Amino acid sequence: MPFQKFGPFFSQEELKALTAAFHATWQELTTSGMDLSSEDKVALVKRKLAQRILVSATAGGVRDVETLKKQAMRSVAGGVRGGELTSAPEAA
């Protein structure tokens, strides 16, 4: 579970929503044609994805899986140009 260390700050249901949003977004990204050809790229995208979901959940108070997914996709996709990962803003 990518958000396990944040257990003290979220309820079990909230952690399940964050995790579901992470996995749903990751699944969509892996089928989108994004260049995930190296372990470094995979690690970077996963880290940015988790950070964006946490920002949405903490600063934005979002707990809805679909909304978290949409915001994460927008944020991560903002860092992709022609299938290559570029620097994306951390928070939108």
Question: What does the model show?
Answer:
- The protein is mainly alpha-helical and 92 residues long.
- The chain has one domain (11-84).
- It is 57% helix and 4% strand.
- It has three helices and two strands; from the N terminus they run αααββ.
- It has a two-stranded antiparallel ribbon with strand order 1-2.
- β1 (80-81) and β2 (84-85) form a beta hairpin.
- The protein starts with 11 loop residues before the first helix and ends in a 7-residue tail after the last strand.
- Residues 81-92 have low confidence and may be disordered.
Cα Rg = 13 Å
Shape: globular
Number of strands: 2
Distance between the termini: 24 Å
User: Percent of residues in helical segments?
Assistant: 55-70%
Q: Helix tally? A: 3
Q: Report mean pLDDT, rounded to a whole number.
A: 84
Strand content: under 5%
Helix vs. strand class: mainly alpha
| Total separate domains | 1
